Amino acid sequence: MRAPVQKTRPRRTGKQTAPAGGTERTTPVTPAPDATGTPAPAVPAAPAPVVGKGRPTHVRNRLIVAVLVVAAAIAGAGAPSVIAASGQLSDSQDLVTLAERTQDALTLAHSLADERDEVTPYIAAGRPKSKAPSEQRGARVDRQIEELRTDPGTPAALREDLDAVASLRRSALTGRSSALEAHDAYSAAVTELHALAEELAEQMPPRAGAGAYALAELDSAVQQAAATRGLLLAALSVPSTRQTAYDPVTGLATETSTTSAADAKTRDALAAAAQEARVRSDAALAAFRENAPETAKERYDATVTGPEVDAAEKYLAALTDQPALSDDDLATSVSKLSAALSARVDAMRGAESALYERRSEDLAQLRDDDVTALEIRIAVLGALMLVAVGVATALARSLTRPLSVLRRGTARLAEAENPAAEEPLTFTGRNDEFAKAVRSVNALHAHAVTLAERVTTLESDRKHLVGQRQKMADAREELRAELAESAARLEQVRQGVGATYANLALRTLALVERQLGVIESMEEQEQDPDRLAVLFKLDHFATVMRRHNENLLVLAGTEHGRHPAGPVPLVDVVRAAVSEIERYDRVRIAALPPHAHVTGFAADDLSHLLAELLENATSFSPPELPVEISGRLLENGEVVLSVQDEGIGMEAERLERLNTRLTDFDPEAPFEQEGEDGLGLGLYVVARLAHRHGARVRLSEQQEGAGTAAVVVLPVSLLARTPSATVPPSAPTADGTGSASLPGAGAVAEAGAGPDADADAEADAEAGDPLVALAEEAVRRSEAAEETEAAGEAEAAVEAAQAGEAVVAGDAEAAEETAAVEETAAVDETAEADDASEEQEPKPEPKPEPKPESESEPEEVSEEAPEAADALESPSEVTMELLVPTRPASPAPETEPA
Question: Does the pTM exceed 0.90?
Fold first, then answer.
């Protein structure tokens, strides 16, 4: 039985120890000598694993932090209660202070009211010196005002009113103010003092008991009662003249009083004010009785009673029942009235002072209760903190003591050179996690002793494994070398295949160009409409063949070396694309941006790209439905071209995959046959050409009905400014030639009117041309085969799309034109020798080097097409140089292909 070998963790070559100082010591292992007896070089010890981060710390410190955290948590939990109690204590103290200030203010208010009630009758009596107010009373009022002003809690508005009392007294005694005006001025100051009582009532907490506003109402009643006293005394003090008259009937003497109109008006105003003050006093007293607790009402009733109070009530009832005083009222004794009313007011003030004193005592008791509650809460919180700190400290010590024993024992075992020479740990504490840790350390110690005994045995095994590993490393290096050599050979093969494709495509394109030149020469000479139509079909088929061969250049990664010199109209690019597909008659050119031109270096590639999209659209749509191509100019200057069909469409998932491949196209990736996610040949060419020029291609479903729309966005870099003197397409020039943008553009524009426009001239054409007859026969056979296989046209369209789907590789056309011109010139010089060489050569020739055109080439070409010699230099340039000869007859109007 094999011993288990640990594979997931590397075996340590030395011993890693952790001294108490925090540093780790590594003892290197000296390998045993080999078979020859020569000791092997010392192997450096592997770095010890990192144990712990940062500087050395102690668990004791963390436990202390834990104890502090517990204490802080308890303090934080109890702090809101202590803060709330402290806040209540502060509020209670403020209420006590406000109550004391209110008592001082009420005392001052009573003094001011007494001074007012003395000054008002004095002014009403005309300010006689005998009734001048007492200076002692004024001095007492000033002292009380000064005491209240020095209180820092006195409001600023009240302090300003108190400062104005002295000037008010001087104005009342020496000024010209009336008695009622002086009374109102004093009453304003008294009202400000009464505001302190209302403020105290508003700040009384619910725990202070009910009847908070009752004392404020009582103070208002007292102030109004005093005002009633002063106003009545002032009304009775108004000067009047008493006359004695005898009754002529009885002969008895009667006394009547007469007063001037001004004095009578003053008396009536004072009497009316006294009546109003009496009403306000009674209303405030009723509010007091309604809101005050029973004890307060009983105390008031017990204080405000007696014969003087009853006499005062009678006087008030008699003198304030009407807003004016009658003659009987004027006969009332002023001294008796003053004594009775003053006794009633003093009794009310005594009751008020007693109630306010009781309130101050209640507030002081409430403050004392708050102090006691705060002290209790602080004591409880402190006790809890002490208990928590004590318990946490005890728990911390129960952890640190066994931890210290475990630390010292493990350090002793770790520092031992020979584990077998050390005794295992001993632990006499509780059977908890520390005891389990000690047992685990002892188990590790026993395992270390066992491993030390196996070191010698495993050393020989290690040497054997090292040798085997070296052999595997050598074999791996050999495989890497073979892989690199295979990759180099594969790259050579790929380049050879690409060069073969390019050579074959260029040779085929040269033959196609020659064929196009011959067909165009025959078209210019042919007059028969039917034969001319056949020649047009042959011309079109050759153009399609040229596009398919250009796809080989795209697959080979080859580009054209020649491009049109100037900008090309966009409409000619679209027409050239239409002329390069098999079913061009189904394409309908819709609106295109006017005056839009494409740069010369991108015109051929763009035409090729559109031709591949049109080929796909016509292949996968019903033969009776048209395919539409349109375009528009965006605000940012880009041009959008759209190819829309009404075909079978495709699934949304495949459409998304194709758009992803078109967007994320990799030009370095090789072409793969179309699979579930792959691009067909046509879309591969489209993607390659779009990537070359920075165009964007996207496929989408039709918004209405079936079919697919291919959208091509041309960036601003591919668009050129409209030339200042641009010649319209197919417009005759001065020398009789027409300027066309791309090969096939003029043919598409005249596709529907060419034969009919030249019908009279073609009537005299030769009918016995064998080449034309053979072409007509081939076309008839092709049409017959298409009619026979009309039932399977959908399947044939799919197969044709899979076999011939291609998207234009536009930049390869210029290089092909150069090769075509050179090969055409060579073939025209020795046609038979060229044919023989083509039959004898089994391998493709490399691409010919470009060479300058000789002066004899235009003459050789003109022999094959004498009628075109006046307009062009060579037949191949009819297609490649974008120039076509004008017809002898007037040109037919341009029409869009059906």
Answer: no
